[in-house]
Amino acid sequence: MLLYLFNGEDSLSRVEVSKALSISLQRVYQMEKLTLRKLKLSMEINF
């Protein structure tokens, strides 16, 4: 879902993700923020 975060050649923008999933841009930002928090926590636990 949030693979667009990685700025690869075929990455999606937040707007494209919002349209594709029929959710608000604000919700995309919220999901991104939550995902980044979980990733940070996971990295802290595993290292």
TrEMBL record:
Domain of life of the source: Bacteria
Q: Provide the taxonomic classification.
A: Bacteria, Bacillati, Bacillota, Bacilli, Bacillales
PROSITE patterns linked: SIGMA70_2 (PS00716)
Q: Mind telling me which InterPro entries this protein's record contains?
A: RNA_pol_sigma70, RNA_pol_sigma_r3/r4-like
According to its UniProt entry, this protein's organism is Alkalicoccus saliphilus
UniProt feature coiled coil, ranges: none
An annotated Gene Ontology molecular function: DNA-binding transcription factor activity
Protein's name in the database: RNA polymerase sigma-70 domain-containing protein
Which positions fall inside the RNA polymerase sigma-70 domain? Answer: 13-39
Q: Give any single GO term for biological process.
A: DNA-templated transcription initiation
